[in-house]
Predict the structure.
Amino acid sequence: MAVAAATRIAVVVVAALAALAPGARGLRRDDFPVGFLFGAATSAYQIEGAYLDDNKGLNNWDVFTHTQAGRISDRRNGDVADDHYHRYTEDVEILHNLGVNSYRFSISWARILPRGRFGGVNSAGIAFYNRLIDALLQKGIQPFVTLNHFDIPQELEIRYGGWLGAGIREEFGYYSDVCFKAFGDRVRFWTTFNEPNLITKFQFMLGAYPPNRCSPPFGCCNSGDSRREPYTAAHNILLSHAAAVHNYKTNYQAKQGGSIGIVVAMKWYEPLTNSTEDVRAARRALAFEVDWFLDPIFFGEYPREMREILSSNLPKFTPEEKKLLQNKVDFIGINQYTAIYAKDCIYSPCALNTYEGNALVYTTGVRNGAKIGKPTAFSTYFVVPESIESAVMYVNGRYKDTTIYITENGYSQHSDTNMEDLINDVERVNYLQGYLKYLSSAVRKGANVGGYFMWSLIDNFEWVFGYTIKFGLYHVDFDTQERIPKMSAKWYRDFLTGSNVTDDTQVRSRRADS
Ligand SMILES: *[C@@H]1O[C@H](CO)[C@@H](O)[C@H](O)[C@H]1NC(C)=O
Ligand SMILES: *[C@@H]1O[C@H](CO)[C@@H](O)[C@H](O)[C@H]1NC(C)=O
């Protein structure tokens, strides 16, 4: 970054920091347990680019963004994205500057196995993640690795219909084994899947993500069955997860000393009214969102609410599968951004075309004309800091003694916001402060929380929203690939390093500017 630009930003940031609410002061890193992981998160397709480099195979998102560009807000794709594949050393450097002790990223399956098991292992792909992992460790940053964050080799999309086909379980088993073998000597934290509870709905219920399958009233697709397929795909993911955990625990954990978990998306549901029906609806929405994946892993079966409502549309586990599922995870990752109101649709009919439709729940961000929290660039995400405490306490209570990591939490802005407000992201600073405050409250109440990751390190390709939505701590100029720290990056750094902006730095940056 040019010195003049850096200085200008520093002055703006210092001025705006001074304007923050004093009530938010006082939160410190040591309000969290010793050894707590603080990090930032990204995923392969969203940042790497280099989509054809070094023998990488095409994945489902490469093909989808090219063949159906009209489904992406700005018709763009991840061909280049943040060019992280070529700029990873710079990105490790900005992580180091932030003062994080961990970095959550995902491995591109098609970079490691361009055609799944139908081709060989791509040594250049292995070499890339080796370089990244080594660069992180050299800076004292623990890699927190996601095996699957939405992208799968296109070969598997074609052969199995993605997660809909049971054959993909063997594929994931093979892929995860290659990764444990290649990287497990240095990786302490593995997660099998990112947000399988969200992706199966976006793929097979709402039809928005490849392979774009759905049926009315959820959407209009060429084919699909919104009431059945999300649960078939989820079943395959759960069994893929269980087999990978079993393999890791049997063959790698003792000598490699790492841990393994899974990451679920977790909205918090507030009943719209105090009626028993709405209170039950909120609980039911949570069962369809979180217990859906975590109950089978912890208790060997799907939650009662789902079995009752979905009946034969919900697959069953055989006794052998139940046994496999009992390979307990070492931790649970939750991606927590928001809360929303839940309204019952069993006793009073409502439109059931939404994300929570199969739970017979209608959700809304508004009660009696008032929003549940400040809106963000994502229309269904509101700023509700208490929701992180509620979510953590719920998971801590239901899945006792399991360590929880907040694997994502973050604030989005529209890309058409003016540059000064993008960089001076006071709202993101407030968001971060607020959520960390409620997270520390959950910790004080005894919840077993092991770490927190901010989504995201850098602005990136936000799936069907393309580049129109920005979550980064660092702004990225996509013409030059310059990374520019936002005010939130500085706030996070100050929080992590305990070195808050002093009068002295204000004087120095002003002097340098003149
Ligand atoms: C629910 O009940 C509580 C306590 O009785 C009350 O404070 C709150 O306003 C009620 N909420 C709604 C949405 O009616
Ligand atoms: C640093 O100090 C400013 C001004 O007192 C405050 O607003 C800000 O939240 C502090 N940053 C951190 C990380 O605590």
